[in-house]
């Protein structure tokens, strides 16, 4: 069974950093581009970042560029999101999602993880 | 930046057809994807590459994409279809989601 499990969320203060993880299983992890998508409470989906299967290509939402770093460890079947200088508006559930089109992405997201909640508050 | 526009809400009676639109500049030149999200749950894919249904998605879900508008159609809507629906497309190397549509079946 293809599965994605996020972890690392929690309550942090404004200006602090946090590293999210996503553990993948049930498929050849390196053969797929991976993504982070977030959803603020009561709001819609917002794409955050993507990384190709080889890590050669990384893309970020313009509004978040400079504060985020996406990475992956194919040997550990894991995806990461390092978030710095967190703000209250970063409060959201963060989902990891596989791009089913393959290692270079550009396709549809399937499946999604269950999400991890990040709360930024003093 | 590229934008996708969806109606905030759509209502349909049980057994009737629901159409959820997603508008964007020359969207028909891109692929459109659709996700269903129940409250408190993760999104699931219901349509990919404009009109293809993943395995396990009921046949009553269909999609089309032409000109500036992609449409998700749910034929014979059921109470279980009540959820939020999001369209998605790629703009260069970035992903764009529509604002979401809450489908009410009543």
Strand content of chain B: over 45%
Q: Give a quick account of the main beta sheet of chain B: strands, pairing sense, barrel closure.
A: 6 strands, mixed
| Total DSSP E strands of chain A | 11
Low-confidence stretches of chain A: none
Count of helical stretches of chain A: 0
Shape of chain A: globular
Q: Percent range for helical residues of chain A? A: under 10%
Helix content of chain B: under 10%
Number of strands of chain B: 9
Radius of gyration of chain B: 13 Å
Uncertain runs of chain B with pLDDT below 50, 5 residues or more? none
Oligomer category: heterodimer
Strand content of chain A: over 45%
Mean of pLDDT of chain A: 97
Number of helical stretches of at least 4 residues of chain B: 0
The succession of helices and strands of chain A, N to C, reads EEEEEEEEEEE
Secondary structure category of chain B:
mainly beta
Mean pLDDT of chain B: 97
Structural category of chain A: mainly beta
Largest interface: A-B, 24 and 24 residues
Radius of gyration of chain A: 13 Å
Structure description:
- The complex is a heterodimer of chains A (122) and B (106).
- Chain A is mostly beta strands.
- Chain A has strands at residues 3-7, 10-12, 18-25, 34-39, 45-51, 58-60, 68-73, 78-83, 92-99, 109-112, 116-120.
- In chain A, strand 5 and strand 6 (58-60) form a beta hairpin.
- Chain B contains no helices and 9 strands.
- In chain B, the strands form 2 sheets. In chain B, strands 1, 3, 4, 7, 8 and 9 form a 6-stranded mixed beta sheet that branches. A 3-stranded antiparallel beta sheet of chain B has the order 2-6-5, with no helix packed on it.
- Chain B is globular and about 40 Å long.
- The mean pLDDT of chain B is 97.
- The interface between A and B is medium-sized, with 24 and 24 residues.
């Amino acid at each position: 069974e293809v599965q994605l499990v996020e972890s690392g969320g929690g309550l942090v203060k404004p200006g602090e950093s946090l590293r999210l993880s996503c553990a993948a299983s049930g498929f050849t992890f390196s053969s797929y581009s991976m993504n982070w998508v977030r959803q603020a409470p009561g709001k819609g989906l917002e794409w955050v970042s993507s990384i190709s299967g080889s890590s050669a290509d990384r893309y970020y939402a313009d509004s978040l560029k400079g504060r985020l770093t996406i990475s992956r460890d194919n040997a550990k079947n894991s995806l990461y999101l390092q978030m710095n200088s967190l703000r209250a508006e970063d409060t959201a559930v963060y989902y990891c999602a596989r791009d089913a089109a393959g290692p270079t992405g550009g396709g549809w997201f399937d499946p999604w993880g269950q999400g991890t909640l990040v709360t930024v508050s003093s | 930046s590229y934008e996708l526009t969806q109606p905030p809400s759509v209502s349909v009676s049980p057994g009737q057809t629901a159409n959820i639109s997603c508008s964007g500049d020359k969207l028909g030149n891109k692929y459109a994807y659709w996700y269903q999200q129940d409250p408190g749950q993760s999104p699931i894919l219901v349509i990919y590459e404009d009109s293809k249904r993943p395995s396990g998605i009921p046949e009553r879900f269909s999609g089309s994409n032409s000109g500036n508008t992609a449409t998700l159609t749910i034929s014979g809507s059921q109470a279980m279809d009540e959820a939020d629906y999001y369209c998605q497309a790629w703009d260069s190397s970035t992903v764009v989601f529509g604002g979401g549509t809450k489908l009410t079946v009543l």
